[in-house]
UniProtKB/TrEMBL annotation:
A GO MF label: hydrolase activity, hydrolyzing O-glycosyl compounds
Name this protein carries in UniProt: Xyloglucan endotransglucosylase/hydrolase
TM helices/strands, residue ranges: none
Keywords: Apoplast, Cell wall, Cell wall biogenesis/degradation, Disulfide bond, Glycoprotein, Glycosidase, Hydrolase, Secreted, Signal, Transferase
One Pfam short name: XET_C
Native species: Amborella trichopoda
GO CC field: apoplast
Family in the record: Belongs to the glycosyl hydrolase 16 family.
Amino acid sequence: MGFLALVFLQLLVVGKCYGRPATFLQDFRVTWSDAHIKQLMNGSGIQLTLDQTSGCGFASKSKYMFGRVSMKIKLIPGDSAGTVTAFYMNSDTDTIRDELDFEFLGNRSGQPYTVQTNVYAHGSGNREQRVNLWFDPSADFHTYSILWNRHHVVFSVDDTPIRVYKNNMIRGVSYPTSQPMGVYSTLWNADNWATRGGLEKINWAQAPFLAYMKDFDIEGCSVPGPSSCPSNPSNWWDTQPYQQLSPYQARKYKWVRMHYMIYDYCTDKSRFPVVPPECMDGI
Ligand SMILES: *[C@@H]1O[C@H](CO)[C@@H](O)[C@H](O)[C@H]1NC(C)=O
Ligand SMILES: *[C@@H]1O[C@H](CO)[C@@H](O)[C@H](O)[C@H]1NC(C)=O
């Protein structure tokens, strides 16, 4: 009886952390324009709308200290130039901001979507990288995820790493380890910079612009929550297999960098005459 009760309790606890995916309203709240976010499939998915009146956005109800967040996203099809769909984590602290960004930059029909990633750690950002996707991200749902632990941050697309930011604190490089972050998403008009550096403007004749998200999965230590959670070595995202890329993941990451990377701040001599220290890693 005592044993069964214990097993049951563990199931409850585990169920709370790992009973995924969640519905939209379990994890998130709308932060910008309710009218532009429509729940679908009984709340397991949503439709985001950008039109001439507004874009929209949402945020997680909790913040998290380490973990992995993922969702499936189907981006705006056709002429999406000037639009940006973002999915990111943010500490919400102005001056010492930590932020991990995925930004999907729309393009003219037939031109490739670009994914920009950026990392802010303890207030310092300017670490943009850009890759073009190797598939049409508006034709179907694909999984986008951010893994964040003490060892590294890994941005992945369908389990292919497209960006790794290692913990190089030992070399004096800032790394997010001291503040919890929330999960955010927005869809907005960024035609002053997004597509070909702002040359391509939004074609409002194509509005409304629609993006879809589903299968929300946040696994991490919520804050506020048990204070022992973030340092519990049995959190799966902290275990050995997640402390570095596997040889297979490393090969895929190299393949993305060789064939699809179109911009890397690490090699932008005009912005950084001195190569930033975290770039010395190689890959
Ligand atoms: C929709 O979700 C609610 C709350 O999670 C649940 O009670 C209900 O059975 C679901 N309905 C369908 C059709 O899945
Ligand atoms: C859009 O397409 C152009 C032309 O192929 C390409 O140079 C650019 O990198 C693409 N992405 C963005 C965000 O401009």
